[in-house]
Amino acid sequence: MREKLTGPKREQALRALPGWREADDRDAITKRFVFRDFSEAFGWMTRVALVAERMDHHPEWLNVYKTVEVTLSTHDAGGVTELDAALAKIMDGIAAQIR
Amino acid sequence: MREKLTGPKREQALRALPGWREADDRDAITKRFVFRDFSEAFGWMTRVALVAERMDHHPEWLNVYKTVEVTLSTHDAGGVTELDAALAKIMDGIAAQIR
């Protein structure tokens, strides 16, 4: 899970994650989530935080009212791993339950 | 509360908020909070989120593991108001309870 994703494996992982893209300035993936309001955005963050803590793998995220800009990368690996892909999928899943 | 803070009033407000400083790129105040770990950081955010929602005044915040970079500004006023100073003080108060 903590091996860096590169080449076709990485492309395949990203294709399976709609809305996620490569970060501009570093080896990471990023997505902007938009909710109805702050309460919905922070509720989503709270559910994700519990999963992230259990995984011992945490997002970087910027919350501005109803939006959350997420960046995922695995510090130990110096880039994107399957752990990031797994957390990205969980984030999408929880967001899908809300809408 | 929603009147823009300028001049001596603003200086006075900032002096009463240790660790807070003017943002570099816009009319806002900012502070970096550092906690013991993610759980403590997100626990603090959750308590602040409840207050922010009650105030109907929300922070911009970037959480990276145990750190939270907060930026406060009042959108309607296009700058820093007493509402921001009040939320900053509450954030400091909740952080002080944790340590």
UniProtKB/TrEMBL annotation, chains A, B:
One MF annotation (Gene Ontology) recorded for this entry: 4-alpha-hydroxytetrahydrobiopterin dehydratase activity
InterPro entries: PCD_sf, Pterin_deHydtase
SUPFAM superfamilies, sorted: PCD-like (SSF55248)
Keywords, ordered alphabetically: Lyase
EC class (word): lyase
EC number: 4.2.1.96
Gene3D superfamilies: Transcriptional coactivator/pterin dehydratase
BP GO annotations: tetrahydrobiopterin biosynthetic process
Family of the protein in this entry: Belongs to the pterin-4-alpha-carbinolamine dehydratase family.
PANTHER family cross-referenced by the UniProt entry: PTERIN-4-ALPHA-CARBINOLAMINE DEHYDRATASE
Protein name as catalogued: Putative pterin-4-alpha-carbinolamine dehydratase
Organism: Blastochloris sulfoviridis
